[in-house]
Fold these 2 entries.
Entry 1:
Amino acid sequence: MGEVDAQPLLYPPLLKGGFQGIVDSHCHLDDLRFEGALPSLLHRAGVAGLDHIIVPCSKPDRWGCVSPCETMGVALHLAYAIHPWYCEGINPETYHRLACYLEHAVAVGECGLDLGARGGDLAEQVTLLRNQLILADHFHLPVILHAHKALDMLWGEVRNFPALRGVVHSFSGSFQQAKQWVDHGFYLGVGARVTYANQRRFHAMIAAMPASALLLESDAPDQSPQHWRGKNNEPALIVETIRALAALRNVAGQALVDQCRKNSQELFKI
Ligand SMILES: [Zn+2]
């Protein structure tokens, strides 16, 4: 997820991927860049073959701006959390509001750690993460994790909650790191990075992971696939990620869609 972009939404050509039952496990429909555009976006998502989208509402001042619903044949499922980019100004009232939203959520997310330039004070990030892991444990909800340059540190925190399950969104670690998360029952979110050239190590790592560990994600409006880079992403473009990932793994696209759907249903109980 990223900063608000004042550019008007530019739509890519309507994509009919020939797939059915695609689950987008990570899409920021609450992002201001999508304001007023949801009916059109969801129509385009439906045409592309999507029927479920998980929406991680990760900014406290945007909680509640998207509701769980089914529209244009696409069901929206909500998750809530405080992203590590927004740890400033969090107080007990924020956690109380979060707990109220979590009563009707499919997951706690996205939360995590960010050791890049955009992450806040590290001590604050860790406190924020720990409090949210406690909430996830309390509500028996899976977690949607953000890890930027922080995979091992994140694992050091998550391992303190042995019952916790979840997905590491936009996973970009090494083979060994991926294996560690997968061996402990976590899923790996795979997005448009599989469509980028010059990502050989990443491609090899993702190709080697068991199909039972993968979730498809758009991360829209960020992380556009190769041909749409630099412009706002949207859920319908996940079709390109599916094609690229299926080619990498040498499987049929629909078989990949079906497996990832099953994985999403298991994790989010949708
Ligand atoms: Zn995200």
Entry 2:
Amino acid sequence: MLRIQSLSKSYRLGSNEVQVLRGLSLEVGAGEMVVIMGPSGSGKTTLLNCISGIDLPDDGTVSLQGQVVDYQSETERTRLRRHQIGMVFQFFNLIPTLTVRENVALPFLICGIRGKQPMRRVQALLEEVGMGHRSEHLPFQLSGGEMQLVSIARALAQRPALLLADEPTGNVNPHIGRSIMEILRSTARRENSGLLMVTHSPEHAAWADRICFLKDGRIACELLQHGQRDALAPIHEKLLTLEI
Ligand SMILES: Nc1ncnc2c1ncn2[C@@H]1O[C@H](COP(=O)(O)OP(=O)(O)O)[C@@H](O)[C@H]1O
Ligand SMILES: [Mg+2]
């Protein structure tokens, strides 16, 4: 579903060049949940941004649903974000002047899709994430956790083939964090979409099928899960050996 091969990305800061990703390769299957862990500054957000085309990779290839993405084409990057990829950010990125309903409807409005059916889907998505009763609120009237639930509903609106989530539980309380994990996990299974999530939480990482550790610009090692959500010990062990 998602195949990343030898991805490289560096940033120039004045005369300094920071090589963030150094030939990173990674695959995510349909319906699979993969977690990326790694220290702050190791390039986790850069990786997600390069996949979604928010940032441009320097080198390497990304294929999505069997097609190599042409990041040089702005049209293709736009199409990618509108139709193939749903994104959940650490700080929600809701539009402050739009209501909850309008925020979730935005992916449809941007594509010129109007009418009763998309609005029914918006309401169903809001119900699904438990925010049906907040549809006329503005983002500032919500808690951080509620904002994240709304942003997840927005990310799911177009039934994306790939869901990218950057520390989605980083700024929410543990109770909502668990709901978020349940929604992301069950949606990926039901819709057969790939889910690539960054987290610092071993507890939330344990929901994944695979956990990849990012170090020195590459995936340093992978941990396969066998459906044992409570098997946290090996994760803690890995974290210690990698000094993450
Ligand atoms: N736009 C940018 N310009 C310059 N340096 C950047 C930019 N974005 C990220 N970096 C640098 O790239 C490195 C990786 O950042 P990031 O991907 O945000 O890490 P993480 O998400 O793992 O904490 C950091 O050293 C950061 O300072
Ligand atoms: Mg980050």
